[in-house]
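Quick question, first post here. What does this chain look like in 3D?
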Amino acid sequence: MQSTQIRRTIMATIGATAALASPLVMAHVGADGAPHLHDGSILSSLISGAAHPLTGLDHLAAMVSVGAWSALGQSNEGDDTSRVRTLLAAPAAFASALLLGAMAGMAGLSLPGVEPMVAASLLVLGLLLATRLHVRAGLGALLVAVFAVFHGLAHGSELGGHAAAALTGMLISTVGLHALGIALGLRLRSARHHQQRQLASWAGAGVALLGLSMLTPAIAASF
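> Answer (accepted):
Ran it through. Tokens below.
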């Protein structure tokens, strides 16, 4: 698969996700900016699930960062198939672990330090994005999967209604945010101007600072 085909596939994914998620989220987000579950119907649960990753800056930043880092930190070694597999390893691991964590959260399970781990994920992912650090695909997938479990627990503890619909909505938004991050990362990776390439470093630094600003209060609140 050529790079242009990859970009077209990603942009199609973003477009499809936006078409599905945008009206759902706009119809379901209240005046306070938070997703509200009006009833226990399948549609309402789907909307609530789709809204969750989009209405929390911490979750949104983490998911976009995973996609962008996967594109920017990717090695040029191997054929097209292996590069695509490497590109998608971390986003796929994050989405899968997020789903498992959310299922556990909806079942009433919990782990200590959920909010500190969510904040720590932003700090780490921001630094990875800022430095474009390349790690082996398996290690990168494992790292983001650990963080994703805690993001999923945070989501799952707040989701209600029809479980399968809520989880499906959450997954739709997650895939779209990953695809957006990958598209941005590929665009910056191929940028000709130094200033454009530096945007990833600034964005990563911003995500890391956001995580750092959340970490201390989150740790204090957990005691």
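The helical segments are 3-28, 42-55, 57-72, 80-106, 114-131, 137-156, 163-189, 194-221.
Residues 16-38 have pLDDT under 50 and may be disordered.
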